[in-house]
Amino acid sequence: MKKLALVCHRSAKLSFVFEAAQAAGIELVLIYDTTESAPAQLPAVTSTWQLPVFDEPQVALEAFAAGVEERGIGGVMTVREEAIIWTALAAKKIGTPGIAPEVAALARNKYLMRQAFAEAGLRSPGFRYIDNPEDLSQVHALGLPLVIKPLSGWSSTGVMLARSAEELPGLIKAVWDVQSKDLARFYDQNKAVGLVVEQYLPGKEFVVECFVDIEGVHVLAVGDKGQPEGPWFEETIYRQRRDIDDPLIVALCEAAREGVKALGITMGAAHVELRLDARQQPYVIEIGARIGGSGVSHFVVEQSTGVSFAKLCMTAALGLPTPALPDVLPAARVAANYIIPLRGDGRFSGFSGLDKVEQHPETARVVTFFEAGHISPPPPAFGGYPGFIFSVHASDEAANAYHQWLDDTLSIIWNQ
Question: Which domains does the chain have, with CATH numbers?
Fold first, then answer.
């Protein structure tokens, strides 16, 4: 079998994709950016390749194409949001399966994405585009509260909620600063830089994990992400939903499928984020053309359904046939991820209660990212996630109880 190039994986500690490749007998060539350190030894990785993916993408593309045959590479994919466009261009250049580069560009630009949703008639929040932080004349027609987002960010990086007209200008400038300082390397250089301002939806947040093949859009998992209310929408939980026949879950799945089609994603993964309005109607918020959370979504799908999400995507990227799938996969168990809440900022000293978490019988894996002395700035700047707690449960009730227990047991110790 030809090797698969995996582009710029964010963290070696989130090793789910590598473990899935090893289980599937797929060898990986791990591409990493010139500003990053050589990765540690990982399952299924037979070689590494440093390329200037973000700072000199065209140079990286030419070097990649020139070295593919020698390295035995037969496909390319990524689970990193910032590398989606480059990966699509790389697949096109070497003639292997991938999403079209113009589709990748839609998925990486929140304004263009929302335009595509609107043109397809999807239920999506009202929005405006801002290319000048001093001119907010178009925004006021949306009403308040408003969510402010960098144009090509990821996760909740730089996202802020403005509840009043008085605080709106200051928050616009704060998000603009995050975009200019922290996110500039990852923008499509052919597109103008700006912000998206959209109407705030007060309901719960969900994610629908999809896999797309020639038969259509298949739902592999539906996750409950709680009800983040701002002001900076810190991510906290991901709990798999088993009740796939519930009318709300059915509506979420249908909205997700329509969103994937609106962007033109025709193969591989789609990570669809949705939110409910006050009437419990689902709205498509954003779609990532990747496995979510650097492999977190793979864990949820595999542990709840027994299907290897990463294997499906890797097999498709290599141009190999994938198995037949139902429209919606049933879940036998509830898989979950708990993002350790910051509840503060400053110099990280350690975790309180982590030893108890590691010993809990429903804890599947603990992954921490902060080391002693790590500086976490106040929002909207993003200093990283402290850590993830992965778990598997027999029921929704057990998963809810476990996360409540984590809230009471686990905390961060800050040195200001």
Answer: 3-105 (3.40.50.20), 126-199 (3.30.1490.20), 205-415 (3.30.470.20)
